[in-house]
C-alpha cells in the first residue's frame, strides 16, 4: 500500500496568517493554481481512492487531483484541521501570547485531534486499497506523519508541510510504513 498525503492549496487566510481550523475558507487564486499543479504532478500515479477533509480548501484540492483519475472521493470531517475554538479567524501573531496550542479555548486538544485522525487512518489502512491519496491540512498531515512513522506527537514540529506538499508512505510486507517522499513541493516551481 502507498499513501500520499497532500495539504490543501493556499487560501487568503494562509497569506494573512489567520487561524483557519474548522472555518470553511476557500482556495484563493494561487491555491486554485497550486491544486491544478499538484493534480498534474500526481496524474501518472495509479490512485484507487481519494479521501479528503470535507472543508472547501481540501475538497477542492481533491477534486482537482481527481480530474486525472476519476476515482471515488470520500469527504470526511475526520481529516479536518484542529478546531481552534474562539481563536479561529484571528491573526497568529495577535494571539500567540494568549493561546494554549495544546487545548485552545472552545477548541479541540492536540490529543483529541491525534486520536480522531489516527482512528481514521486505522480505518483506511485496514482496507485493501493499493494507492490512496488523503487531502487535508497542516495539522492533519502532521498527525498522519506521526501515525505512519510511529513517532510521538511532540515530534510533529520536526516536519514541514507546505501548501500542496506531498508526503508519501509505503507499507512493507511487515505492515510498517516508511516515508518515501517528504514535503515535496517541486510541482510549484
Offer a concise description of the structure:
32% of the residues lie in helices and 19% in strands.
Question: Largest sheet, described in full?
Answer: 6 strands, mixed
**Number of helical segments with 4 or more residues:** 6
Secondary-structure element pattern, one letter each: EHHEHEHHEHEE
Structural class of the secondary structure composition?
alpha/beta
Helicity, as a percent range: 25-40%
CATH topology: Rossmann fold
Coarse shape: globular
CATH class: Alpha Beta
What do we call the CATH homologous superfamily? Answer: Phosphoglycerate mutase-like
Strand content: 15-25%
Q: Which architecture name does CATH use?
A: 3-Layer(aba) Sandwich
Tally of extended strands?
6
Order of strands, main sheet, comes to: 3-2-4-1-5-6
Unreliable stretches covering 5 or more consecutive residues? none
Our measurement of the CA-to-CA distance between the termini, rounded to an integer number of angstroms, reads 29 Å
Could you characterize the architecture of this molecule?
By secondary structure, the protein is an alpha/beta fold. It has helices at 12-16, 29-41, 56-66, 92-95, 110-125, 138-149, and strands spanning 2-7, 49-53, 72-76, 131-136, 166-171, 177-184. The protein has a single domain (2-188), classed as Rossmann fold (3-Layer(aba) Sandwich). It contains 6 helices and 6 strands; from the N terminus they run E-H-H-E-H-E-H-H-E-H-E-E. Strand 2 (49-53), helix 3 and strand 3 form a beta-alpha-beta unit.
